[in-house]
Each structure stands twice: as structure tokens, then as C-alpha cells.
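Per reviewer request, we include the raw input and output of the structure prediction for the construct analysed in the revised manuscript.
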Amino acid sequence: VTPQEARYIYMNRTHPSAVETDRTNYAQINAMTENSVVMSLHTNEVFYQGMRHRIDWNDPEAKPVLSGNSTLVPPEVLTKFCGGKFVWNEEARTADISIGANHLQFTADDKNYTANGSRFTALEAPKMINGKLYVPLRETAIHADLYIYYNPCGVIALGEKTAIAPVMTDKLAVWAEDELDNVPYAPATAHHSETRRVIGYSK
């Protein structure tokens, strides 16, 4: 087609392009989850401020995990997306977490923890995964004045209650799950010379 024909076809199309659809969807989820982070179990990306973010570019395995009936999250979820501070003491195997005026301390493989000077017991103990301490999301949120939205399909939103509770619908959660599963990075594959197959002959 000529450039003029291409322009005419583009301007008179009846369906938005994939890029436009993505922009619309991202704008929608950003508006509906303002001041919060949306994540999914076993997915290494989150939605935050209208964009997808890798939780930790240095660790592709960093993602929320389920331990018993509790969700454990890598520290980056709290530091990069919730404005928290995370200090790890290798010798004592303890982590100090500060979010706003709230302070928590967890110890690896110990259900007992402290929050703002008081002692509590978590449903599941923090765990060391790939050299970093994953902390219980529920207990952290409770003592950090954050609200959690859980959905049966595995979508989790974390942030201010006024921003999440009225707008996080099941429909949005299902859409978020599909988006987070749609990884934009091509997986590693074998070289074509190792996968070539004869599929037909021609004269």
C-alpha cells in the first residue's frame, strides 16, 4: 500500500491497536489502585504508578510466595513500592523494617516478631530464599497501617485502604492476573540449528 493508503487504513480502523489497548488498561488500573502496589503470587512483576515493574532486576526469582496460609514477600515490595526501609543483619539473621512511623523486626525462621516495641507471633515464620529474608505480608501490613486486598486468583493489592477497598473489584483482579502472566520478556530458547526440522519438500 502507499503511505496515503496506510494512513487512511490506520485513521479509519475500528479497533484500537495493542499499544493503545495497553495504555488504556494501564491507565485504568493506575486510576483504580492509586497509592498502592498490585502483585500476583509467583510473579516477579508488579503494577505500580501505572507501570509494570520488576520486583528485583538482580533476582528474577524475587516474587511473592505462599507459605502455609500466609503470603511472604521479598523486601523490595516494601522498600521500592511502599516507601519502607529494610536493614538486614546477617550475623543476627534479623531484619528491621520501617514504614512511616512504624517499626518491625523479624528473625529468619522465627514466628515471633516485634512491632513498635510489642511482641507478636506470626502465622508463618519469615524464610530465607535466595539469600534474602521474605517476610509475612499480613503481619507487616497490619502494623504498618496498610490494607491488603486478596483475590482467590492470586492477585494482591497493598496500600492505603481508601485507595484499594472501594475500587479493587474481582473483574479488575482477574484482568491484573492475566496481565501479570503476560510476560513481555522472551524466554531463552535453543538455537535454531538445534531445533530445525524438515517439514516438507518442494520441486
